[in-house]
C-alpha cells in the first residue's frame, strides 16, 4: 500500500481503491508549509480525536472533496453542526464495513477536547482491513495492554504509531507497542512539530532496528510503499 505523509499525524493511505486520509493538520503546521492543502484528495477522512492538531483541516478538505468523515459520536455531532453532510459515527469497540473495507474503532489512552475546551468524546485508534492489506493507526495514545488484542482482529502489514513522547508514547513504548501488535514495519508520527515533542530521529530508528522493526520517517510530502 502507498502511504503519503503530510506532517505531524496526518497521512493518507491508498487502499481498497480509495484514499483514506487521517487526522488532517496541515495549514497550522509550520513544518508542512510547502504542502498545498487544496491538492490533498480524500474519499474518507478518519479522525482519532478532537484536538486541533488532528482536526484543523477536516472541514476544508471534506467540503472540497466530499469525503466521508469518521469519528466518535461527539466528533460526528461536531462536524455535522459545522455543516458537513457526509459524516459517520464510530465509537471504540464498533466496526463498520465501507466500500474499501472494514474499520474497527479501538481504544486510545489520551485526552480529547475541542479548541474551546469542550468535551470531544474519547480518543480512538483504527484497525483497517482491506483487500490490499491491513494496518493499525493508534492515534495519540499511551502504551496499553489493549494493544495485545489487535492481532486477534487483523494480521497487520504495518502500523502508524506516535513516537514524540511527552503527550503520547515515546520511542521506547512504541517499540513495545509494535511487538504487541506483531508488526515489523512502523510509520512514526506525532514528533518534531512542537518543541516538547522533538526527537533524535536516528536514535529512534536504531532502537526499532534493535528489535527487528523498521521505522519509517519519511519527509513531509513523501510517499512510501508499506
Write structural notes for this entry.
Keywords: Hydrolase. The protein has 226 residues and is α/β, with parallel strands linked by helices. The protein has a single domain, classed as Metallo-beta-lactamase, Chain A. It is 20% helix and 28% strand. It is built from six helices and 14 strands. The strands form two sheets. The protein has a seven-stranded mixed beta sheet, covered by helices on one side. Helix 5 links the parallel strand 11 and strand 12.
What is the structure about, briefly put?
This protein is α/β, with parallel strands linked by helices and 226 residues long. 20% of the residues lie in helices and 28% in strands. The protein has one domain (2-225): Metallo-beta-lactamase, Chain A (4-Layer Sandwich), CATH 3.60.15.10.
Major pleated sheet = 7 strands, mixed
* CATH class placement: Alpha Beta
Strand content: 25-35%
Indicate the radius of gyration in whole angstroms. 16 Å
Q: What coarse outline follows from CA principal-axis ratios?
A: globular
Listing every helix as H and every strand as E from the N terminus to the C terminus, the arrangement reads EEEEHHEHEEEEEHEHEHEE
Strand line-up of the largest beta sheet: 6-5-4-3-2-1-14
> How many beta-strand segments?
14
CATH superfamily: Ribonuclease Z/Hydroxyacylglutathione hydrolase-like
Give the count of structural domains: 1
CATH architectural designation: 4-Layer Sandwich
**Which runs of at least 5 residues are low in confidence (pLDDT < 50)?**
none
- pLDDT averaged residue by residue: 98
Distance between the termini: 5 Å
- Helix count from the secondary structure assignment: 6
Q: Which bin fits the share of residues in helices?
A: 10-25%
Structural class: alpha/beta
Q: What is the CATH fold-level name?
A: Metallo-beta-lactamase, Chain A
